[in-house]
Structure formats: C-alpha cells, structure tokens
Specification:
Number of helices: 15
Radius of gyration: 26 Å
Helix content: 40-55%
Largest sheet: 3 strands, antiparallel
Low-confidence stretches: 396-417
Order of helices and strands: HHHHHHHEEHHHHHHHHE
Oligomer: single chain
Amino acid sequence: MERVITAGEWTLFSPNEVPELHERYGDAFRAAYEAAEARAAAGELRHRPVGLGMMGFADALHRLGIAYASDAAVDFADRSMELICHTAYWASTELAAERGRYSSYQGSLWDRGILPHDSIDLLASTRRPDHAELALQLDRSSQLDWSALRQRIARHGMRNSNCVAIAPTATIANITGVSASIEPDYQNLYVKSNLSGEFTMINAHLFAELKALDLWDEVMAADLKYFDGSLAAIERVMRADFDLRDRDNLHEFALSYLFFAAIFEGCWFYNGFSPIFALQRRGLMKGTAEQLQYIMRDEVLHCAFGIRTVRTLIEEENLQLDPQAIAALWLEAEAAESAYSDFLLPEPILGYSAAQHMGQFRYIANRRARQLGVAEPFPGASNVLPWLDEQANLRKEKNFFETRVTEYQTGGALSWD
C-alpha cells in the first residue's frame, strides 16, 4: 500500500505464485515482495513474453451484420485471430534478427519448429485411435502463408516466448470506447464502476440502427432506461410475426425458455463444472475452480429467474405445456450430456468418471423438473455427488484483477441531461 499511496509503481502477483507473502507484514513483507519482483523481472527478461490481443470483437460483428452466436462469427474469429497471430509472430522474428533471440529459446517449441497452432497435433496424438468419437473435430485450414514465416523463424528465431493473449479486464476497452476483448455485449445500456472510474456503456450500434429505422425518439429513450436497456418489453421493435397473445406462440416461447433456464443453465452449466470441482476437492486447480464458482453462482441465478418466469406463465396464463415435448427436451439434453461426458472422460480422472457425471446430471434434471412443477424425467436418480452443491456455493465477493467487485447500476439510474 505504500506504493499505492505515493502513486508509485507496484506489481500484481497471483497469490499461488507468492505464498511467502501471505502471512508477512512490515519489513519482512517488503523484503519478500521486492525479492518476488526481482524474480519476476529476471523471468521476463529471460523469456520476454508479451501478449497482443483483440478488443472490439463484438463491435466488428455489429458492423459486419453478423450475429455473435453464429457460424459466420466463428469464421470471422478464426480469420481475424490468424491474422493477428501471423503478424505478431512475424514481428517477433524480425526483432530476433535485429536484437537476438530470447535467452531460453534453445529447445523451445519455437526452436523445434512447432508453432502454437501446431500444438493441436500434439493434443490429437494423445487421443486413443480406437475411439473415433474422441478425435478432435475442428477446421485446421488457414488463409495465410505460414511456410515463409516458418522458414524465417528457423533462420532467425523468436524475440518473445509468448506473443498473443486475451486481456483479463475490460478497463482499457471502456476507456477507448470499444467492446471488451472477445466478449459479447453485456447489456445495451448500463453503468460500470471500478477503480478507474465510472463508465456509461451504451450499445452505439443499436442506437444507430434505431435511428435508421426511425424508431429513436424520447419515448424509446425512456423505455430503454426503464427496462435497463432491454428491448424485450418494447413492442414496436419486437418480431411482428410472433405474438405472445397467440396460445401457440406462447407455448413455443415457454418451452424455449424452459429449455434455456432449466436445461442449458440449470443442468448443462451446473453439472458441466463438476469435473473441475472434483479436482478442487483434491487440492488441484483451485484458482480455476474458484473462478468457476463465481460463474456458477451467476448461472444459478439465471436458472432460478427463468424457472420462476416459466412457472408464472403457466399459472397466470393457465398454460398447459405438452408433456411429450418436455420429455423430448430432457432426452435430447441427456444425449448431449452423455456425448460430452464420454468425450471428456473416456477414462476416470482421479476417481471422477463419466458414469458419476451422468448420474449427477439425471439427479439435477429431476431437481429442475420439480422446481418447474413437471414430471421428473429420470425417476429414482440419486445424488451421486453430494458435495457438489456445497462446492459450488460461494459466499464471498472479490475481483482478482482490480481488487474490488465491479458494480453495475441499472439503466434507470442514468441521466440523459
């Protein structure tokens, strides 16, 4: 805190990298902290890692008219990141020719002619050849000439051990006025507060489109503020061909929302993190597991809200959901989860198996069904992971990167003056 108070430079460490700092204070802490800084500086000079990345990915998709959750967005991400990587690697090898290779280059993957995207082949080689369903299924095609770059790296080496990364915070993106990293839009309208100040975040692309459609006026501005930036309740911008006053449309909407809330977030997300939590119980991957606990807490809230919405629709609209349609959703969800668990766990990992994973999925599915007030899809399923609920529940708040929980205000708190 001395350096913070005096506006000096300070170093942020991951807690697991500096356990010697945890219980020290005063002069002893200062000496250990400075020693850790010296080690970090020596490591950086030896390996010279840098991290070039991307901001404004969602903005680019808006400009191109591409939906974030689409195959076209995946293709754009593939092509744009290939360009960034190719350019970064080329620049690093030019620096190596000018100033020399980083000192630990010899014997590295670069030195062995293995570029980062080649490591996919190393992963593929570890998969069992007698299980075709475990083979990696991804597009390995490229748009750029990598052969010339490989030849240059073989001749000159690399100046940096690492060249690209994903930024951990959105602060810089907020300051520069673009969307954060490769993330989707959080909301169309909100206020974000952190140590760097308060930022009013507005989806400028939405406003531009509303203006182009002659839908932007004082009423629209007031509606967006009132509904926290959501368009869902503003009838004049919704689909004209989908009227929730129509019973068939209402039934379709309720089933879709049931799937999203109870299955996608309530089962797939909830159960999908359990392999990492199983490792956490053994003292492994504790940092990753703790961050997943924060995500889990968020998804559980989404699930609870969605289930409450569906139940309210059923009660207030006297809606009778088709039990066969619901049963089909559960069976489809079970098949997808089974494929996921077989892919992830062809063999048990430290006592955690695909059979346990699927047993817990069925148990959680029954819980969501009871919360919805519908028939259990898997009668008799037992709680095979009784520790999961306790492991997943997190009752603390902190931000690893900025030391303060990011606070979000509702759009209704904004002033348009």
